[in-house]
Amino acid sequence: MSEIRGFYSLWLREIKRFVRDRTRLVTSFVQPILWLIIFAAAFATRFIGSLPSDLNFKQFLLPGIIGQTILFTAMFMGINVIWDKEFGFMKEILVSPVSRLTIFLGKMVGDSTDAFLQGIIVFVIGLAIGIPINPITLLYALPILMLVSFGLVSIGLTIASFMSNLEGFGAIQTFVNLPLFFLSGALFPLKGGGLPTWLTDVAAWNPLTYGVDALRHVILGNSWAPLQVQSLWVDVGVIALFDGIMVIVGTWAFTRMK
Amino acid sequence: MPHIIETHQLTKAYGSLKAVDKVDLTVEPGEIFGLLGPNGAGKTTTISMLCTILKPTSGTATVNGFDIVKEANKVRKSIGIVFQDPSIDDRLTGRENLYMHANLYGVPAVEQSERVDRILKLVELEDRADDLLRTYSGGMRRRLELGRGLIHYPKVLFLDEPTVGLDPQTRDHIWKYIRDLKKAHDITVVLTTHYMDEADRLSDRIAIMDYGKIVILDSPSKLKETLEGDVVVVRANNVDALSELVTKSLGFNQKIIVDGALEVTVRNGKAVMPRIMELATQNNIYVESVLLREPNLEDVFLHYTGRNIREDTTKELHGIAAARRRQIK
Q1: Which of B248, B249, B255 is CA-nearest to residue B299?
Q2: How many Cβ atoms are within 10 Å of B128's Cβ, its own excluded?
Q3: Does B104 sit within 8 Å of A9, measured CB to CB?
Q4: Which domain holds residue A148?
Q5: CB contact residues (below 8 A), chain B span 87-106, against chain A
Q6: ipTM for the whole complex
């Protein structure tokens, strides 16, 4: 029972901090708009032919940018861990009677909720700028957004638990973010584009590949089937497996943190 | 229960260096127990072990009857900790910080609001309770941390250098709180400090620590009595030379130079004063003033460790860093 309350208070803290951070809320709108408007405008014509005829480039791109937003937000959350270590609050949490598993889960689910909300914001932005998608598909996308967030946030928290300064984490963040993003099929289809096999081979090991693929399944429906990486259920299975592994790794990382 | 805290040969070693070296001590329920020592003496390491933050290299200890290694979780539930460095979330309000702590320590939900209100009143932060911590002053934050450590009704409250970096007025304030809290909640307080006046005015008993060992343990008044003597304080134009002469010609070894004055601890101060004056005159040293005073804790510290606690003014380093620094010395 006290573990549940501990979890709840850690979760609530992350939410409060997120809601109070106005700058982050505002900037979370900017990046997806840049991708969906500028990048899409420039690259749409170059993709003619490689997409199914009933999909336009912006429709294709939106789930990728949702995935990218979740990834970047998730990695950014690691900064909070370093911040907490620097300002001593981590000590208060770590010496409490709450187990390390609960501490990790509370922080991870709290940060995932933030990433999840950002994902929803991007979906709504997509609708607002007139990308033809069915608003109802958001409902199907929600559980996938949550599942994808869990694993990616866990990566950020795990890395951050090993780091002691913000500068170092910033460097590693870029190092993780960009390869995962570029190798996930977020910006181009992994199938049917005549991509080099090394690229598709590496992408097959990227958890975000399955997250983006699953999001395309639910948001684009049957139109996506010809280019799918895996079926929706395989995607979900891979993500869930990855989440499970990352929770174990993350809890271990938090256990050895002083 | 006989002792609220008991340690047996408690040791923390970093390589071959012992930050805490075979410490045996007992703390009685309801007392304020002071661990006094210069920076790097092993005070923080000792209480870190008692708080289950560090695992001892050897030896054992119990807090509230629970083993600090085997029953770490039960120990954690029995204690409150106020760290040397701040450990509050400055993006939450005072009240939110307290609620969070109550949840982490499993305070029943129905009791939380009453306890939080009572603590806020106790540390006089009611009107600022719903402001973000970042708008609090240093003293206010410290008070909130003190209050926070009490929300789960701990049996023992550990305070690591509770007034470091605070102005004298705030320190007075904090001392008053610590005494009031002890009385109101009937808890045991263990505090570390390198301030003599803090140890003297707050503690029922003091353990002086140096190089990882307990040098002596007693009540402040008894410690001062053990010196059985007076302190002769001499101001002169050449205290260094006078200091050497006092040892060479008169044979007094218990001495130190503090703020440009020579302080000699002797059995019979009244008889010694004129002899020091005489010695100074014979050697052309001009004496500005002489006075006699009773020994204070600082003299006790000097007596048992052979040095002045104020020689060290740098921030306390933990673990290996502290041990290394000691090696360099």
Answers
A1: B255
A2: 18
A3: yes
A4: 2-255
A5: 87-92, 96, 99-101, 103-106
A6: 0.86
